[in-house]
Every structure is written in C-alpha cells, then in structure tokens.
Design goal:
Helix content is 52%, strand content 11%. It is of the alpha/beta class and 209 residues long. Strand 4, helix 9 and strand 5 form a beta-alpha-beta unit.
Length: 209
C-alpha cells in the first residue's frame, strides 16, 4: 500500500508547486513566465505545457499593465469565466465577461449560420479600454479575433489562445503566433477552459503579491 501523507488544506497548493518545481529539474522560463507555466501545469497535471506555451515579446508586461488599467477579460466559455478570480480583477476596476449565452449572440449566430464564438468576439469590439481575450474552447474565436484586428476593429491587450481539440485548433493558434497580436498560446492540440482561466489567474496573482 502506498503511504499517504495528511497535508493541511492551506499547504496542498504550496506542496503541489514544490513537486512541480522538483519535477522540472531546475528548468526555468524567466521571472515573468515561471509562475504562469507552473500554474498551468498545476491546473492540468501536464508537463507538456513546459514546452508548448508560447509567449510573444513582453506579453506578460502588457497584460499586467492592462489589468492595472481596468481591463475587461472576455472568455469563450462560462467555465473559463467562472474560473477567473474576479475579486482581484475587480480590485483594479476590471471585469470578466462571457457573451456566449446572450440571446442577441445566439440569434445573430443562427441567422448568419456561424458559431456563437464568432459573434461573441464581434460583440467584444464594443468594449472600451483594455481587453484581454481568454479563449479555451473555440478556434473560430481566435480566427475572428485575427480578422477583426486585420480590419482595424480590435486591438487586444493580450490574447490567451488555448483552445483544445482537433478541427482548426492548431491552425488558429498558429495564426495568432505568427501575428503581431500580444499573446500567450498553447501550441498544438492541448488546452481548455481551465488552462485559459489558470493563465488569467497567474497574471492576477502576480499583481496581488
């Protein structure tokens, strides 16, 4: 029988990060990226993220400035929205929103024969100020964000591009990676709403310290 050590609730996360650090065998990613990579691994228990997370130049710094300026975080799922620490976000005057269940989004998507994610990204253009996108499910959201930037209708402070799956997932991520859009992207097929929320929270926790 394996030995099970009883750990106090407040020490579980601390011990988890210690284990992650140990298993990385001294590997580091830079002071601005370390805790983001480790939090994604903590959320997913998947060490592949040590290799597949791609950061554009100064993406973290730009995101932190945006949050301090009251950024709106737009998600493509209610799950990602619910996972974001909105208490910290609101302390800087920001908010997290998800338009996927809005009636006007559903009606417009049905009328045009497109995904709700596409219409949600278009609706996000109406937000004033800094906007961060946390995309964990819909590659069509990333594709539409890229188009809206090309059309001059959108200027994201950061795009977190981590949709999971197989259809257009890799291609949509590469579209963002190859662009000038500030980004944190999980290259390949892996990702998910939990990963999108984890990256948001890692950024927020940097400002809480």
């Amino acid at each position: 029988m394996p030995e099970i050590k009883i750990i106090k609730p407040m020490d579980i996360e601390k011990r988890s990060f210690e284990i992650i650090t140990e298993r990385l065998n001294g590997r580091t990613f830079g002071p601005d990226k370390d805790d983001i990579v480790k939090r994604v691994i903590h959320t997913s228990a998947d060490f592949d993220y040590a290799d597949n997370l791609v950061f554009s130049e100064n993406a973290v710094g730009k995101a932190l400035d945006a949050i301090k300026n009251g950024a709106t975080i737009v998600t493509d799922t209610q799950m990602a929205w619910s996972g974001i620490n909105k208490k910290i976000l609101s302390s800087f005057g920001g908010e997290a929103v998800c338009y996927m269940s809005d009636e006007d989004v559903a009606e417009e998507a049905k009328k045009r024969g497109v995904t709700r994610a596409i219409v949600s990204m278009e609706k996000a253009c109406k937000n004033k100020g800094e906007v961060i996108f946390a995309i964990g499910n819909a590659p069509t959201a990333l594709i539409r964000i890229h188009e809206l930037v090309q059309e001059g209708k959108l200027k994201p402070s950061l795009v977190i591009g981590v949709p999971v799956g197989f259809v257009n997932v890799v291609e949509s991520k590469e579209l963002i990676i190859e662009s000038d859009i500030p980004h944190i992207v999980a290259r390949g097929n892996k990702g998910g709403s939990n990963v999108a929320a984890a990256i948001c929270n890692a950024l927020l926790y940097k400002l809480r310290r």
